[in-house]
Amino acid sequence: MTTIQSTHDREKLRDLAVEVAAEAGAFAAKGQEGITVLDTKSSPTDVVTEMDRATERLIRDRLLAARPDDAVLGEEDGGVEGTSGVRWVVDPIDGTVNYLYGSPDWGVAIAAEIDGVVVASAVCLPSHHRMFEAVLGGGARLEGRTLRAPDTVPLDRALVATGFGYFPERRLQQAKVLTGVIEHIRDIRRGGSAAVDITGLATGRYNAYYERGLHLWDWAAPGLVASEAGLRVGGARGGPPSNDLVIVARPGLYEELDGLVTPLGADTDG
């Protein structure tokens, strides 16, 4: 059973996440030039590069060197069991297609969870020279400065970010949902990285976000940054975030967006 209970203990997990994310981000950034596709996962458009796997190995090695009894769940190599009660949830390169094409919109996301609750996290965006960090109940920070999301706006003035899945059938449904959303909001953005999009809400880059098909490693670390910055992170019909749907926005706007996208089938494949 874990003994990680106090804010101080959570801060130590956060500090380790920040340290490892910074090293992994620098490592991945150095390897971005000339990168090629190594393999595909769920579909031909769901790519993984040699740097995804190498970066995840680096993160796993550093975390377990510091805390050998912890568990680790990574996007590329699956899970390692532990006995401490702490599990690290890792996305080594979130936004792999962006990374492959030389776009700056990708990041390294590391979260620590206890009993299924994320208690500390770090999101490094190397090309943007940004490090986001958060502790459950202890707030969110960007480059050491306290981070608070801007005040909410009405749905019709909201700049909304979203993403699309890898399977054609899901993309078609997501496009249909989008046609029902676009007339009710200010505009839409599709960045290609949940880590960039969700942390971007905390800085005011967007007002709201929704996406179907995300996995825990996609939203765990940036989701804690967002929630500690004053945003609501949830799913369809006010439920928890899940693979079915993740919604992030200030309270008030969250409910409006949920009430718009869920009846349109944003949490289904049609």
From TrEMBL:
Catalytic activity: a myo-inositol phosphate + H2O = myo-inositol + phosphate
Keyword Zinc: no
The organism's place on the tree of life at top rank: Bacteria
Pfam families found in the cross-reference section: Inositol_P (PF00459)
Any GO BP annotation: inositol metabolic process
UniProt keyword list: Hydrolase, Magnesium, Metal-binding
InterPro entries for this protein: IMPase, Inositol_monoP_metal-BS, Inositol_monophosphatase-like
Signal peptide as annotated in the record: none
Family, as annotated: Belongs to the inositol monophosphatase superfamily.
Protein name: Inositol-1-monophosphatase
Taxonomic source organism: Nocardiopsis alba
